[in-house]
Amino acid sequence: MTEPGIIFKEIHKYSIHAFELQEHIARIPRQIKAQKTRIERMEKEFKDFQDLLKKIKVSIHEKEVSFKELNAKNAKLQKQQNEASDNKAYDALKTEIGTTKAEISKVEDEILFAITEQEEKTAALPEQEKLLKTAKAEAIAIEKSSTERKAELEKQLTETSALLKAAESQLSAEHLPKYLRIVQSFKHDALSPLEGKTCASCATEITSQMMNEVRSYQFVACKSCNRLLYLSEQEERVFRESEAADEA
Ligand SMILES: [Zn+2]
Fold first, then answer.
1. CATH of domain 13-168
2. What radius of gyration do the chain's Cα atoms show?
3. pTM for the complete prediction?
4. What are the residue ranges spanned by the domains of the chain?
5. Which of 228, 159, 167, 149 is nearest to 193 (CA)?
6. What is the pLDDT of residues 52-108, one digit of tens each?
7. Which of the residues 26, 124, 165, 248 has the least number of beta carbons within 10 Å of its own beta carbon?
8. How far is the CA of 131 from the centre of ligand 1 (A)?
């Protein structure tokens, strides 16, 4: 029968790997969602841009109509002024003509400004459209590769979970319930290698008696954090070398 300490090392390796795979798999739908949100935002910005262009076009048309109306009004006032019978009427018309001319000039400026804006926005439209198209293609490619990656990771997770189960099934009937209780509270973090004489998880030093037990691969839990202890590859090598040196 395999000693617990040897099984623990295996279990820890597989449970950490399974946990990392789960974390990775869980991130993938979030990454795909983020891409979708980005495209939705860009589509909205593009539509807003098109709407703005339409608005500018409508406003140019409206201003052109009022430009014509003001010019007609001005012509009519000029005619009335030429036909004025007295000075008072003449002066009143003069003031009104002045106001109308100022309005014409203002509308004219506004039309020129709007036309410039329309030209600039129209010129920028194909570039905006291209950016949106590129981003959409990117998002589709990312979704495809992420979905493939997810399937691959899920396959790895199934394999790793099977290895973990196989390792756990090697624990004796005596040790298994204790192990399961600890796993229930710590999940993938239920085991800890030793670093020298110290539990790597909680940094508490263990007794020499416990050290001997861990070195002989017994079922040992850290007295401080209750995690199951095992020798790391490094510690195992150091221990075996010192043993060999003692024998020589
Ligand atoms: Zn500990």
1. 1.10.287.1490
2. 41
3. 0.79
4. 13-168, 176-247
5. 228
6. 999 999 999 999 999 999 999 999 999 999 999 999 999 999 999 999 999 999 999
7. 248
8. 54
